Amino acid sequence: MKRREVWGVALLLAAAVITGGGLWLHAADGAAAGQGLLLYIGVRASNVVYGLMIVASLVAAAGLILVVPSLIGRIPRKVLRRTVGWTTGLAAAAALPFLGIVLIFAILGAVGIGDDVKVAAADGQSVLLVQDGFDGDAVDIYTPHDSLHYKWSRRADELGGWPRVKDQDCQLHSDATGLHLTCGAQTVTIDQ
Prior knowledge:
Elements: H1 3-34, E1 37-39, H2 45-73, H3 78-111, E2 114-120, E3 126-132, E4 139-144, E5 149-155, E6 171-175, E7 178-183, E8 186-190
Antiparallel strand pairs: 1-5, 2-3, 3-4, 4-5, 6-7, 7-8
Helix pairs in contact: 1-2, 2-3
């Protein structure tokens, strides 16, 4: 094996490992969602899955660029080698628009369509506000469940719209009746 082939195989194996990690995280996120939980590791787990998909796609493409020409070059018959080479080149050219579209949506998913805002009270209690990215009219409030999960608490559409929740300087206060979230002129009570 040539050095180029070794690097290509190593990149393909790395892409497989990254894909496996993304699939595992996606399954964990789906299992949490089935229980009404949101897997949150500084950002939503779905954003991390999309980021891993981008990295795996680019690493796999680099690995294929290194491996495929060497494999085609090993075909002994000249006519067959050229036919396979041209067919592979045309297939790669046809796949580029698809890969571009996939990468565009993966980038949108990785940067997060929508807003996640974590708001903490003075006593350390916190909530996570999730606002949809389309028109911003849906706002969901999540409370901590454990170190990695937030549990859906309620929907607060009165906080939706413009300005976005992240731009409203939200503050969380707690007392004996529960948590009170103030965003702009709106106040929402959150049961614990």
